[in-house]
Amino acid sequence: MSGASFILAINLFMAGLLASAFMIIAAHDVRRISARWLGFAYLLGMVYFVIEFSIPAFDDARLPVVAAFASFLAATLVYNAGLAHKYDVARPWWPMLLLLLAASVVVFFAQDLPRQSLARMMAYQLPYAAMQLVGAGIIWSTRQRLDRLDRMLMGVLVASAAQFASKPFLAHMLGGWGAEPQAYVQTVYAMASQSLGTVFGMTVALLTLVILVRDVMSDATSRSEIDALSGLLNRGGFQRRGEATLHDATRLRIPVSLVLADLDHFKLINDNFGHAAGDHVIETFAGFLRDAAARSHVAGRIGGEEFAILLPGANLAAARLFAEGARSAFGAMSIRGLPSDHRCTASFGVAELQLQEGFAELMRRADEALYSAKKGGRDQVRAAGPYGLAISGTGVTRFNGRG
């Protein structure tokens, strides 16, 4: 067995492993449609390697050569479809299908050209390069929400396209790719080409696999941070996201404020109307917070009837306006499961992050302001000043603590 044939065998085995890995991810999470497409792409890659192995057995290699070319190009097309699903962009089906059809026809007739001609070699390699660039373009179209791994994958796809485009020149440097298709695997070029393809192919595959595993783990973490009843972050999730938001706000030197809210007389609602009605109250308030929150805000249910929302970019005055609007709107809502004339209210405490202050201290001051609002008669907003002052609508009250 030649060196190129050995590499083909390794690639066939690795394509099978990668197809299995993507299919396992797809089976683990049926919503992960991209994993099914990617698994299918590597199954097509296996077809390509099998056909390449079989070419020496044919007297007339024209059809198997075209079949090998088309199967590999189809594998990259399906891979791009998986990328489009993963990055949630429109699948460029028609351009890719036209490229596949046109390139296969060109390769069929290009076999009438001299075996070592540059035009014939470019007919094989440039469509591969173009399909790799399509994949890089799919990722680039979502550049505003990419992280380092996504950008690395995009860069490797561009580099892979460049290596496909350079292969005709590499073939000339290394003495060509055989006097006939059956002799391809015996050439130095075949060894170099298959080695290059293996390096880039494995890099692309492993980066793609790591990105999918990252997404699965991120989704699992997100689900563990969500409160089932309200659909908001639970206490642990709110603290983790909140600390990260405070870190970013401090680095960017923008204000950030915290609003705590507590549903008034919630135990009486459960006692008088049942726990189902109490659940509707929580769902209604949580839904209101989700609708009122901007994309950058962090909202959570941090206790039985206690909620929090972190507002990056908002100073104390803006956060207080947000809380006043929430208090007024919620107090006017009719809630399913309660009498039509029954209205629920909430109390709010607001605090703005101070210099050298951490998440725990910000929470403590907002909680003290909330306690002041509850003690002052409920259904109101109190804002914490920087020195332990609760600022109400009518004046300033010094905190005396909870004791």
Compressed to H and E, one letter per element, the order equals HHHHHHHHEHHEEHEHEEE
Q: Which class of secondary structure composition applies to the elements?
A: alpha+beta
Helix content: 55-70%
User: Overall pLDDT, averaged?
Assistant: 89
For the largest sheet, list the strands in their spatial order. 2-3-1-4-5-6-7
Total domain count: 2
What is the 3D form? elongated
| Largest sheet entry | 7 strands, mixed
CATH 2nd-level architecture of the largest domain: Up-down Bundle
Radius of gyration: 31 Å
How much strand content do the residues show? 5-15%
Low-pLDDT stretches: 394-403
- List the total number of helices: 12
Write the SSE topology.
Blueprint: H1 3-28, H2 33-54, H3 62-87, H4 93-110, H5 118-140, H6 148-173, H7 188-224, H8 235-252, E1 256-263, H9 266-273, H10 275-292, E2 298-301, E3 306-312, H11 316-331, E4 346-352, H12 359-375, E5 381-384, E6 389-391, E7 396-398
Parallel strand pairs: 4-5
Antiparallel strand pairs: 1-3, 1-4, 2-3, 5-6, 6-7
Could you walk me through the main structural features you see in this protein, from its secondary elements to its overall organization?
The protein has about 400 residues and is α+β, with helices and mostly antiparallel strands. The protein has 2 domains: about 5-225, Up-down Bundle (Rhopdopsin 7-helix transmembrane proteins); about 235-400, Alpha-Beta Plaits (2-Layer Sandwich), CATH 3.30.70.270. The protein is built from 12 helices and 7 strands. It has helices at about 5-30, 35-55, 60-85, 95-110, 120-140, 150-175, 190-225, 235-250, 265-275, 275-290, 315-330, 360-375, and strands spanning about 255-265, 300, 305-310, 345-350, 380-385, 390, 395-400. The protein has a 7-stranded mixed sheet with strand order 2-3-1-4-5-6-7, with helices on both faces. Strand 5 and strand 6 form a beta hairpin. Helix 3 runs parallel beside helix 5. The longest helix has about 35 residues, at about 190-225. The termini are far apart. Mean pLDDT is about 90; it is low at about 395-403.
